[in-house]
Amino acid sequence: MASSDLETKAKEAFIDDHFELAVDLYSQAISLTPNSAELYVDRAQANIKLQNFTEAVADANKAIELDPSMAKAYLRKAMACIKLEEYQTAKTALEAGASLAPGDSRFTKLIKECDECIAAEEAEELPAELVNKASIEAVTPNILPPAAALPSEGTLVSSTKPKYRACFLLLFVHFSLTIHCNCRHEFYQKPEEVVVTIFAKRVPANSVVIDFGEQILSVDIEVPGEEAYHFQPRLFGKIVPSKCRYEVMSTKIEIRLTKADSLHWSSLEFSRNVPVAHKEYVSSGSQKPTYPSSKPKRVDWDKLEAQVKKEEKEEKLDGDAALNKFFRDIYKDADEDTKRAMSKSFVESHGTVLSTNWKEVGSKKVEGSPPDGMEVKKWEY
């Protein structure tokens, strides 16, 4: 099937609220036409409907990269960032989109909402910042040398460690993970920053694109002739994008994320199952540095999975919501032939037939079968 046909079917699925099918069809179209900004921005919208907000931001970023003049790509990115509570990143995207579409009132309305949310966050955080500052000043010995100034964005400055380093408590947590690509990444943290290292040898600097959001890190490495590497996690905590920086070296890429607060990150990526530990770093001249074990905490995944399935089973839906969930569950757990049969029968019949038998529908076109008293009409775009 041609890319344009897949795009048309994806739009039909989206209109009928079959968002998972729409994402699947858009992905197939993108595999055939990878440089279409329109496909990425439409898939971003479907991902927003599925509450896949991180994926939606990644799709919107790709659309902006392919066509920086597409105003709705900035709108999609902003909508996803707002859902992720990344209001400053959303506002930046909205301001860029507003400059491209000055007559669109949606940008003005959402910018106002972002300003209100940013003001509310600052009002909540101000008392805590004052308390933290007073606590740190109260316990810091006078013999400590003044802190070095933070280097400007995009630069790395090496400095010698003071001989009073025993006065600082550095909780150094180190994790090492292997990604689906040939690259491997690890991270460690200090009170004020998280350092992410991606091990990739001899990567040209112009092949690396890294973006920082309030709680999103986006890394794209595309070297001609090699498999592309994409890493776009939602981070455990918030960062200050303007102070984050990275450096491409001969054997690795080092990314320094400046924390928005001094909370301890128990992992690099955000997870609703991992509670935020409100643990502040405090310097003390009487304590020796302590280094916790890097051995990962054991999680009973079987128990967690059983609990999630139980909650899903007990969730009571009715009407169209129950029917849509029923079809989504069938599609999600089906084999490839069943998925192909469902996709083909649904799109060719304009949403009036849904078959799971590939042998029956694979060799012929599936005709529409509307309810009694109704007729099939082709949707015009």
UniProtKB/TrEMBL annotation:
Coiled coil: none
SMART domains: TPR (SM00028)
Keywords: TPR repeat
TPR repeat spans: 37-70
Domain SGS: 290-381
InterPro entries on file: CS_dom, HSP20-like_chaperone, SGS_dom, Sgt1-like, TPR-like_helical_dom_sf, TPR_rpt
Top-level lineage group: Eukaryota
Family: Belongs to the SGT1 family.
Name used for this protein in its record: Suppressor of G2 allele of SKP1
